[in-house]
Amino acid sequence: MSDTSVAKRYAVALFQIAKEQNLLDSTEEELRAIKEVFSNNNEFQSFLQHPKVSVEEKKRVIGEAFASLSTQVKNTLLLMTDRHRTDVISQMAIDFIELANEERSVAEAHVYSVRLLNDSERKAVSSAFAARVGKRTLRIENIVDRSVLGGIKLRIGNRIYDGSVSGKLERLEKELLG
Q1: What is the pLDDT of residues 133-152, one digit of tens each?
Q2: How confident is the model at residue 1 (pLDDT cuts 50, 70, 90)?
Q3: Is 126 buried (19+), middle (13-18) or exposed (0-12) by CB count in 10 A?
Q4: Considering Cα of 79, then 85, then 87, then 90, what sign does the dihedral take?
Q5: What DSSP letter does each residue of 56-90 carry, written as one string?
Q6: Do the Cβ atoms of 63 and 82 come closer than 8 Å?
Q7: Pair 116, 72 in one domain
Q8: Close Cβ partners of 74 (under 8 Å, ≥ 6 residues apart)
Q9: Residue-level pLDDT at 14
Q10: How many CB atoms lie within 10 A of CB 60?
Q11: Which PROSITE patterns does this chain map to (predicted)?
């Protein structure tokens, strides 16, 4: 079985538990934090995947590192450690977040702008583009990118909406040059 399908199975199981216990929001927050830890800490990943470190030692470290997590999340991490699946913990978190977003009809959006957007601008972007992708709302991650010059560039999944000045200039240049 591929790593992605293994991660998906753990994510679905944890999602069902979180949904039954009305803990979807808190579980998602915890998994976002776990995803950050695993994607930004290569030493921790190397430790968990090292063949000479015993499973018990790995479980002890996970128990200490994630002591403040809910029981269901901690137990999922420990189970994945028992089954030598620590390599897919990050992907499991991503899959869980996708399931939670789908449940709430939310899409993840990356907005590139010259400056950080304020709350009203975020709401305006969310309401303008959520319907275009068939969702109720967008969860916006605002990325400051000075090359945009003005306006915004928006990435939702594999779609890019370019309303930036630099994008308009590029399109104009292509049109003029043939």
Answers
A1: 999 999 999 999 999 999 99
A2: low
A3: buried
A4: negative
A5: HHHHHHHHHHTTTS-HHHHHHHHHHHHTT-GGGHH
A6: no
A7: no
A8: 62, 63, 66, 67
A9: 97
A10: 12
A11: ATPASE_DELTA
| Mean pLDDT on 150-173 | 92
Tokens read off for 102: 């789908």
Q: Which amino acid, 105?
A: S
How do residues 13-61 score in pLDDT, each as one tens digit? 999 999 999 999 999 999 999 999 988 999 998 999 999 999 999 999 9
Domain encompassing residue 65 = 3-101
110 in the same domain as 168? yes
The string of pLDDT tens digits covering residues 85-135 is: 999 999 999 999 999 999 999 999 999 999 999 999 999 999 999 999 999
Q: What is the dihedral of CA 47, 51, 54, 57, to 10 degrees?
A: 0
116 shares its domain with 151: yes
Evaluate whether 151 touches 163 at the Cβ level (below 8 Å): yes
Q: What is the pTM of this model?
A: 0.82
Domain count, the chain: 2
Query: What per-residue confidence (pLDDT) applies to 178?
Result: 73
Burial of 28 (C-beta count, 10 Å sphere; 0-12/13-18/19+): buried
Domain shared by 91 and 148, yes or no? no
Cβ–Cβ under 8 Å, residues 6 and 88: yes
